[in-house]
Write a structure and sequence with these properties.
The chain has about 475 residues and is of the alpha/beta class. The chain is built from 14 helices and 19 strands.
Length: about 475
Amino acid sequence: MALQYVGLSEINGPLVVLDHVKNASYDEMVEFVLQNGSKRQGRVVQIEGDKAVIQIFEGTNSLSLKNTKTRLLGKPMELSLSKEMLGRVFNGAGKPIDGLGDIYAEKSADINGQPLNPVSRTYPQNYINTGISSIDCLTTLIRGQKLPIFSGSGLPHNQLAVQIVKNAQVAEEGQEFAVVFAAMGVTNDVANYFRRSFEEAGVMDHVVMFLNLSNDPIIERTLAPRCALTAAEYLAFEHDMHVLVIYTDITSYCEALREYSSSKGEIPGRKGYPGYLYSDLASLYERAGIAKGAKGSVTQIPILTMPNNDITHPVPDLTGYITEGQITLDPELSSMGIFPPVNVLPSLSRLMKDGIGEGFTRADHQDVANQLFAAYAHVQDVKALTSVIGEDELSAADKKFMTFGRLFEQHFLNQGDENRSIEETLNLGWMLLSVLPRTSLDRLDNKLLDQFYDHEKAVEYFGLQESNVIKELKDAVNG
C-alpha cells in the first residue's frame, strides 16, 4: 500500500526535505501534488535515517510546506523506449517536445543504465567515418570508443557537432546507424540551430534529440545525458544498431551538478565541484562500448568547453583520465578562418591503431598519419625558429616545411562543410606529403613511396586550386 505524506519539512532551492519517511530508496521517483491540484516529479537524492532529501525536476516555486502531498512511487526514473524515438525531439527528462504526442513505448528502462561487466565487453574495432579529414585520418573514431572534443569559449564546437551528425556513417553496407544527440544548457537560438540543421540536411530520420534549454531546471540538465545514453543502449543492444552519442556541453552538466551539490550542503572539491565528480562522469562515459554477442555498439563524443582554455580545469582533467583520447580545438586556427579548427598535435585517439589499416580503412593509413604528424610537428619547430631569426633566414629545407604547413592548414584542416571519404582524405594526405622532398619522409618505407609519392602531381594539384601557391612551391623545391 502506497503512503501519501502531507506537508514538507524544508525547501532549499530545487530540494525539499521530508521527515518520517519509511522504506525510501536512493534514486526512487516521487510525485508531488500541489494545493491547486497540479503535479510535479522528483527523485530521492539523499537519505539520512527517516529523513529523505528529494530533488524536484520542475522547481520548488509555489510549493507549500503545509499542504503539498507527497507519494513515493517505488521505482527509479525510467525512460519510455521505442524505435519510434528516431526522428523525435525530447526535453532533458525524456518528454516529447516536438508536438507529435507521446511515443508508443515497447518498454521502459532505468535511465541510470545497467552495469556492464568488463569481462563481457568486446575490444572496440572498426571505425565510424565522420567525413572530417583531421578526425578520420589522425584521430580516428573507433566504434565503441569514447572520444571527447575539448573546446573553448567562442570556438565553433556546435558547428562541428552538426557536421559530424550530418556526415557520420559506418563503413559496412547493411548496418543500421543512428545518432543520439543531447544538448544541455543551450539557449533557444542554439537549440533551434541544431533542429533546423538536422532537418535541412535530411538526417532527422536517424537522429534522436534531447534538448535542455538554459532556462529549464538544472535538475533536468543532469538527467539529459542519462536519458540519451539509455535511448542509445536500447537501439544498440535491442535493435542491433550502431549508435553514436554526441552530447554538449559537459561543462554545463558539471556546473548543474555543482549547483545542486551545494544546495545539499556537500563538502566541495576542486573549484567547488563535488568530490564525486570523477565517478559521476565515469558513470556516463563508461556506458560506451560493445557487449559480447551484441551486433550493435554505443560510441560517445562528449563535447566540453574549457573555462579560460585551461586543460587542467577539473572537467577536462577528469574527462581525460576516463576517456580514450581527445580532439582539441584551437583558438588560433579558428581566428585564421580554418574550420574545423582541430589542433592535431595535442589530439589523439588511443584506440585508433586497432581500427584502421587493411581490412578497416586502407593499408597505408597508419603510415600516412604518422608522417603527417611528424611533418606538422616539425613545422611548429620551424615556426618557433622563424619568430627568432625571421623566415628569410631559414634553410631551404625549413622553407619547404613552412610551405607544407600552410598547405596542410588551408587544404587538409580547413575543409568547411565538405564531406570527405577516407579514400579522399588519405589521397589528400599523400598530395601534401608529396610537396616535401622524398628524403624528408622518414616515417614511410620505399615501397609506399614508390606507390604514392608524386611531387610533380602535388605541385600541379595545389597550383590549380591556388594560383599564387605554385610559384612559391617551385621556389621552395629549387631551394
